[in-house]
Amino acid sequence: MKIRSDVLRTYQSLHTWTGITAGLVLFIAFYAGALTMFKPQITQWASPSSVYANNTPLVEMDTLIDQAVMQYPKATDGFIVNIDDQYSSLSWYEKGGGRGLRLDDSLTFAQRDDKGNLVTQTSDKNALGALIDKLHRTGGIPGTLGHEDIGVLIIGVACALYFIALVSGVIILLPTLVKHLLALRTHKGNKRFWLDSHNLVGVFSLPFHIIIAWTACVFAFHDPFYGGLTLVYGDQPLFESQPKSTISYNVNSLPVIQDYLDHIKVVAPNYQVRSLEFSQLSTTTPSLAIQLASEGAMKRGAVTDIIFMHPYTFNIDYSSLNKVEEGVFGPLVNSFFSLHFGNYAGNYGRWMYFILGLLGAFLFYSGNLLWLEKRREKQPQQRRSVRFMASLTIGVCLGSMLGVATTLSASKWLYLFAVPINQFYLICYYGLFFAAIGYSFYRGGAGAAITLLHALTIACLSIPLTTLIFSVMTNNATHSFDNNTIIVDVMALFFAMIFFIAAKKAKYRAFNGERNSIWALEVKDSLPKQIVLAPDFKD
Amino acid sequence: MTQLNPNDKIQPHWWSKTLVAIVMGLTLSYGIVAIFAWFGPGGISAPMKVQLNMWLISAIWLPILAFIYLFKSTKSAFISMALINTLIYLIFSGLWWIQ
């Protein structure tokens, strides 16, 4: 396809500059987003099974609730019933509760012992999965503006740039699309190889990327967008407001759990109830949030759909399920959410989105490498801007992953010491992240890449190793962990292998690759004389 | 490829074109969404439609932002966007008047 040369030049510049500005923060958002596909498994891997205490049969649940409400004033405000296939659990917030992520929330789990007495255990609510999710939404940028995270707004702007980068990337590829799309030229030098793989991944995951760019932009800016819509709607209200009730209720008149399950079976026949969260039970505004799962349905939430119900009257205040009376608009809007979360195709969809997310991270990483390669000069010392960008790319990308991998691996060990677990996660992540960036600037990108990739290999290896040690060594009940999270160990092992190979390649490139490159390292005399100067490929 | 007359070539004008796309692209998006919201299927009070309308704003705005650089200059981008904006808001007013 022929395209005017000035159009190509314009969009080439656009692609370069939107990509390089948004690339790093999007790299973090994408790989962390890929990990959130396995958020429940990761949280479960990281926290002891005693924390969940899923060992009350559903038939005993009402007796347990009655006992808890009698003895614990906190439980009269509200409680959570997690429902699992065989056993369920009862818990309530000892501290915190409600929407949003707080690191010092603690939950008390209750169960009955053999004699039917109430036994409770209070511990910090494990937020590892939620923190990875926050890393995905904010890129790890802290701070809030009003009630919105600054990081979310920055990611929102980055997504607009990313949309421009997608459009411009396709435009500059059009003239050679048919000829070169499937050509992965390995013999024409490193730059060609990176460019070909960048293009291949970009074109084949284009629909996914367009959806993600658009939906993430909406997630970041929906409040201002609604604000503008009030002008369009004029006197017409955007949302119907619920009439306020003045009737006060008492927890003692709460229906039994089975009543709710029976009711849900009628309202949502194809869904399984995952949890019932009661709150403000003794006020005029009692609420019950019901999480509903269904493999394969397009769901509004990341993992589940949700129904908000009045716990005493069963009146449904809000439901994210598709409803017939909402016509075509409800399902359409729900599908946008679902297409972002990738929850519409069960396990298959989860893996597909996991892979697409990682490929997205690769897209941004390779984009930065291409930017550096394009500015390469034929001399050993590269330009200052290039050295800066190389250090930043290596430090941010590898440092962020090192932070997450190490935090995950440290979790089981941290439970051995009575520390505020969630705060330690943050210290661990940010400590390593900034240390890696500092180290990368101190040593330069080429050297730091090798060290950090080795560190990543060790961090990933330590994850299955930790599982192994804990499954053999501990017979202490409070520190035993579920063994059904093997998927986390297998994935960690796989990534350890990838990082090890990458480290080897980075080392080879540093000593045996192109000399006039940002990635070359000075060869010390003590090294064996195996160095062959690679021919200088012309593009 | 045929040689372009230098006067026909696209001028970069990065910041000014971006500004035109951000401001006039947004007003245009809201204008189109307003027509859809009031006069599209279901009318203004159809359930869940407000959410779809919110989603549509960026679905129109983002492509404008991406394609604004095809205009030869800021001036031509500004004039075209002003014309399309006027047209859309005229259509909205016309529909409002005849309803």
From TrEMBL, chain A:
The chain crosses the membrane at residues 20-38, 150-178, 199-221, 351-371, 392-418, 424-442, 449-473, 485-503. Pfam families: PepSY_TM. The keyword Transmembrane applies. Signal peptide: none annotated. Keywords: Membrane, Transmembrane, Transmembrane helix. This is PepSY domain-containing protein.
From TrEMBL, chain B:
Keywords: Membrane, Transmembrane, Transmembrane helix. The chain crosses the membrane at residues 20-40, 52-71, 77-98. This is DUF2070 family protein.
